């Protein structure tokens, strides 16, 4: 921190400007501090090219917010410390929305003010370094300049590196694309913006071929992936029929993930489904069943709990979202921890319940209440047969029975 830094101090209160400047110069005598009023602020910004700006609030708070926005438009990574005469939470929040990086009460102790200046200069240096690195990544084609996402040419290295470096064994990989019908009308920019505003900082997004987007969601299950999908749809708005292939990343290379997820996306494209999930691989769990002693309840219980987490809960959630808009005037509830999928309207009340009696099977009880309701039934299913495909088939048959008697 021995580098000379340019600091621009803006205030229409000349006496306060002199006092604040003297405090900073006294304790950071290597820095160049330039004072300015609001009128000449933008001109001094372009002349000085400051590392940091100290902005004292104006009598007009609207003018303060406006100049923060103008500064950020001129220099996106500029660090701005807002100096306020008194604590006003609403005003400070608006200032953060406009682009400040920190705030301080103008009457604060010298030590506090200088520490904030030092910390923000450090942050500014990091931002500038990241900006330079980002420009280099764009120039080499690793990052796409328009979208800000990784380019397809380098996505294999990016995803494999992320999975291997972080030793990820839990997460979801998605490939998104507009439907065949909407490919000619969807907005590329709007889609990119929707994805950016729906993913977390540690999620990885890359462009794919033919209007596809690859998204890696670390430490996320299928249910979390559905939440992200819904956020993207909501942000984009009407007119974007979205299709997706979804797979877990457990013990898979990028090539394996891409191949199976593209296949799932293709199935979604040519079906009524909005998305298709790749079957979770449960070889390890099911191999336990073959080796386990018939009386080893503890092992079977572990397998069932895993099936509940990896198979039953995602299927319940998926089918609820799929049929919420299709079953009019019907309340759909799902409680995977209790093994319940529940449909109810004025005419019919139907419930599918998964019961674990112990050992190597589950029992699925289906009950119907209402006028002319179908007969109740019970299905016994070995744990090895508890797959997403089998469970979806059973629940969709259950839904068909409900629809037939509730019309």
Tell me what you see in this structure.
The chain has 407 residues and is of the alpha/beta class. The chain folds into 3 domains: 6-139, Response regulator (Rossmann fold, 3-Layer(aba) Sandwich), CATH 3.40.50; 152-278, Reverse transcriptase/Diguanylate cyclase domain (Alpha-Beta Plaits), CATH 3.30.70; 284-406, no CATH class. The chain has helices spanning 14-27, 41-48, 61-74, 89-98, 110-139, 155-165, 188-196, 222-236, 254-269, 283-291, 297-323, 388-406, and strands at residues 6-10, 32-36, 52-56, 79-84, 102-105, 171-178, 204-207, 213-218, 242-248, 275-277, 331-335, 340-344, 348-358, 361-370, 377-382. Helix 3 (61-74) packs parallel to helix 4 (89-98), helix 10 packs antiparallel against helix 11 (297-323) and helix 11 packs across helix 12 (388-406). The longest helix is centred in the first third of the chain and has 30 residues, at 110-139. The chain is elongated and about 85 Å long. The termini are far apart. The model is unreliable at 282-295 (pLDDT under 50).
Short overview:
By secondary structure, this protein is an alpha/beta fold. Helices cover 45% and strands 22% of the residues.
């Amino acid at each position: 921190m021995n580098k000379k830094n340019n600091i621009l101090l803006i205030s229409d209160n000349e006496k306060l400007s002199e006092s604040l400047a003297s405090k900073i110069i006294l304790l950071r005598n290597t820095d160049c501090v330039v004072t300015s009023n609001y009128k000449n602020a933008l001109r001094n910004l372009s002349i000085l090219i400051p590392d940091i700006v100290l902005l004292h609030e104006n009598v007009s708070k609207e003018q303060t917010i406006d100049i923060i926005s103008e500064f950020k438009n001129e220099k996106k990574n500029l660090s701005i410390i807002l100096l306020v005469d008194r604590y006003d939470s609403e005003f400070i929040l608006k200032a953060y929305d406009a682009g400040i990086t920190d705030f301080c009460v103008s009457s604060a102790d010298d030590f506090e003010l200088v520490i904030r200046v030092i910390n923000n200069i450090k942050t500014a240096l990091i931002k500038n370094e990241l900006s330079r690195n980002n420009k280099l990544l764009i120039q080499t084609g690793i990052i796409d300049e328009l979208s800000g996402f990784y380019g397809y040419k380098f996505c294999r290295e990016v995803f494999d590196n992320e999975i291997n470096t972080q030793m990820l064994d839990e997460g979801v990989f998605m490939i998104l694309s507009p439907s065949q019908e909407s490919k000619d009308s969807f907005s590329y920019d709007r889609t990119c913006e929707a994805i950016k505003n729906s993913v977390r900082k540690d999620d990885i997004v890359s462009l794919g071929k033919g209007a596809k987007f690859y998204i890696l969601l670390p430490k996320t299950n299928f249910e979390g992936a559905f939440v992200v999908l819904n956020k993207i749809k909501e942000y984009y708005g009407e007119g974007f029929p979205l299709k997706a292939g979804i797979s877990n990343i457990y013990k898979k290379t990028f090539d394996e993930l891409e191949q199976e997820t593209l296949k799932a996306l293709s199935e979604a494209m040519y079906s009524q489904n909005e998305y298709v999930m790749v079957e979770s691989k449960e070889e390890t769990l099911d191999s336990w069943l073959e080796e386990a002693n018939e009386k080893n309840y503890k092992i079977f219980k572990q397998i069932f709990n895993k099936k509940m987490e990896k198979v039953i809960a995602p299927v319940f959630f998926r089918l609820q979202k799929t049929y919420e808009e299709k079953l009019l005037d019907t309340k759909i509830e799902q409680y995977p921890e209790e093994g319940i999928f529940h449909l109810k309207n004025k005419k019919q009340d139907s419930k599918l319940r998964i019961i674990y009696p112990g050992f190597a099977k589950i029992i699925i009880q289906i009950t119907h209440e209402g006028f002319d309701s179908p007969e109740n039934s019970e299905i016994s299913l070995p744990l090895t047969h508890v797959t997403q495909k089998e469970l979806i088939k059973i629940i969709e048959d259950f839904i068909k029975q409900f629809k037939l008697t509730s019309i």
